Amino acid sequence: MSTSSTAMNPATGHPPSLLARVRGLYNGAAALLDLLQPLALLAARIYVAQVFFLSGLTKLRDWETTVALFTDEYQVPLLSPELAAALGTGGELVLPVLLFLGLGGRFAALGLFVVNAVAVVALADIPPAALQQHQFWGALLAGIAIFGAGKLSLDNWLKLR
């Protein structure tokens, strides 16, 4: 009896077609990527949460400068500079903690998406590199808002209880 490195199709008794082999490879790769999805969502949550939380801490450390920036640089529509500074800083300190924990993950992601969008709109002359960073953060936040915080989150833990 001869052995072959290619398994036979039990239905036909012939080796699998190229299409069947490609489909099998694709399905295997997709299954592996599905296993990595919770880690990817966790990494995205941690990364974006850190960016915004550190920004909020910076604003909090020098409140006079923060209010001056909201008065002179950031042109937030409909809000006084003091209120815009307080809301922006509060959002950058509270929402990242929720995002990091995955507690109200979609809410936190949407909230930070708004903070991010307001930052882009409010800064009249945003450098291209800064705009690219904000677009990247916005894309990560949109993904978290759409797909949820993932299996490695308090949202998932609470859902299972």
Give an overview of the whole structure.
It is built from 6 helices and no strands. By secondary structure, it is mainly α. The protein has one domain (37-160). The mean pLDDT is 93.
Which key terms come to mind for this protein?
elongated, 6 helices, 75% helix
Whole-number mean pLDDT:
93
Content of β-strand:
under 5%
Largest sheet: none
End-to-end separation: 56 Å
Instruction: Give the topology string: H per helix, E per strand.
Output: HHHHHH
Q: What is the general shape? A: elongated
User: Ranges with pLDDT <50 over ≥5 residues?
Assistant: none
* Overall tally of structural domains: 1
Q: Helix count, per DSSP?
A: 6
Helix content: over 70%
Structural class: mainly alpha
Oligomer: single chain
- The total of beta strands comes to 0
Computed CA radius of gyration, to the nearest angstrom: 24 Å
